[in-house]
Design brief:
four-stranded antiparallel sheet; single chain; globular; mainly beta
């Protein structure tokens, strides 16, 4: 079993940067691809970014490409999302997740989920 806990969310202004972290326990992360998803009020949960088991391959939603960077540190059993040039449309509850499938797996194929961390971007 894998337990995931997100941290780093908060209230920031448009244009600011923020770094989200996801810490895992119960099992090492090297056997899992990792991803970030977000859900805004009244909207469906959407894919944000994902990283392969090795950390060598990544994928991003078009809405965040060029602004967000996903990375992982298997030695520390953590995964991060560096967010820059934030805008109000990025406001959402952000979840980290792990999947035994490839990093490009769909949300329904992720096995473990954190409780989420809130990111609010004011204009």
């Amino acid at each position: 079993q894998v337990q995931l806990v997100e941290s780093g969310g908060g209230l920031v202004q448009a244009g600011d940067s923020l770094r989200l972290s996801c810490a895992a326990s119960g099992r090492t992360l090297n056997g899992y691809a990792m991803g970030w998803f977000r859900q805004a009020p009244g909207k469906e949960r959407e894919f944000v970014a994902a990283v392969s088991r090795s950390g060598l391959s990544t994928g991003y939603a078009d809405s965040v490409k060029g602004r967000f960077t996903i990375s992982r540190d298997n030695a520390k059993n953590t995964m991060s999302l560096q967010m820059s040039s934030l805008n109000p449309e990025d406001t959402a509850l952000y979840y980290c997740a792990a999947t035994s499938r490839a990093y490009y797996a769909g949300s329904n194929e992720y096995d473990y989920w954190g409780q989420g961390t809130q990111v609010t971007v004011s204009s």
